[in-house]
Structure formats: C-alpha cells, structure tokens
C-alpha cells in the first residue's frame, strides 16, 4: 500500500515532469550539450510537426511515472501562433506587391506652413544670416556642401543660391530623396530624382531675387541654411546607360508620390512645408 505522503510526492513529481517536458519541447537546446547539437537538429523536424502541448502529452504518455491518463488529457492543446499580417511589400509567394498611389487630399491644406512659421524653425536650427557669397565661404565650419548626390539633383539653372545647408537640413534632404526612391520602387514606378531649385541664399542674393520675384521675402528662411525648395513639375530621370530607355512617367504621378513622402516627414515633425503655386515647388524648412 502507498501512503498519503508517497501519493503526494508522485503527484508533485508528475507535475514537474509535465513542466520539464513542455520546457524541453519548446527549447530543446536547454537540455542538450554542445556534442548533441546534431541530434537536436535532427529531432527538430519532428518537433516542428506538433505543438508544444502535444509534445508534452507524448512524453507524459510514455513516462514510467505514476500519472493517470486523466492527468495527460488535462494538458491544454495550444494552437499554433499566427504568422501575423501579410507584408505590404511582398506577397505570400515572395513576389513584390505593387503599392497604390494615394497622393494627399489637398496640397495647400496638407502643406500650409507659411514663412513666419518656418522662420521660427530657421532661427532655431540655422546659422546667422549670410551676407554674401564670400561670407558663406567663411562659414564652412557651420555649413555642408549639398552638390551632386545619388538621391537628388541640384538644378543646373540654380543661380540665386549657394549649395550649402546646415547639417540637419542636409540630412533631411538626403532622407527625402531616399524615401522618394523607396516609394517609387514599392509602387513599381521607374526611378527619378527630385530636383532642388534653391538652397542657401545670401542677403545679396535675396535683394537681386526680389527685383524679379515678388514672392521672395526680404527676411527669407533661405538666409539661415535650413531651407530648400524642391520643384514638383520637373524630375531627373535615372537612366541605365547600357539598358533601354525608361518609359515616360507623368510629372503629376511623381508629384503625388513626392507629396506622400513630404506629408509623412512633416507628420514625423522633421520639417515644415509650404506648397508654392506660382513657383511650382515645395518650400521646406528643417524642424
């Protein structure tokens, strides 16, 4: 006859076996030594075909301990975890998914940041207003060059500004170009670079510009190296010199994709954006 203490001992031992069996099935490497890695790898094929709870039941059923079938049946059966939501970039078979173009509801409402709002950010992150080009050359410790780049194109017609920005704004411009590339790829649109039409302006540049452009303000954000303009009606096509010419893409299509990129950057509090109708550009200041 088995006394009460012995029964309690066996019951406790049975529970321990259950827990250890479930732990070993879930993490087989816990109970294996370096020398048995090969055996563990072979057994993982079998373990993959059943849930952790089913594995625990199998171990319990073959155990020589005094555990009843009722104890084995009481172990809950766990359903496999779902793999999660499907990727927005790849289908189940691994092929790329073509993402839709949404644009933004209204350009003026989505990008409303006027000059007075952008000036606050320019004063916070920018340099002291540049007097002339000679002054800009002396300020190279505060400014970085933003010329030729794999992700954006500096307009060949740019005459009223100097290709310098503060580092914070230069990083923003690079990220806009990279995100624009990423969006074009996920939407399966041939690659194009955005065109930068204006960057740092000296006070002398602003004075000249105001004579022919009534939209230019005397206290321009461009004076502080925090601001740049990206045109939305022209783009620089990326061509493979050894491959066929790319098919034509409407500028409006590229504008819609660019607007999505800028809206996301603005919502992340990285920049302020004004939609310029007359100038055909997005006026952007780093935030």
From TrEMBL:
Cited SUPFAM superfamilies: Hedgehog/DD-peptidase
InterPro entries named in the record: DUF5715, Zn_M74/Hedgehog-like
Superkingdom, natural source: Bacteria
Listed name of the protein: Uncharacterized protein
Organism: Leyella stercorea
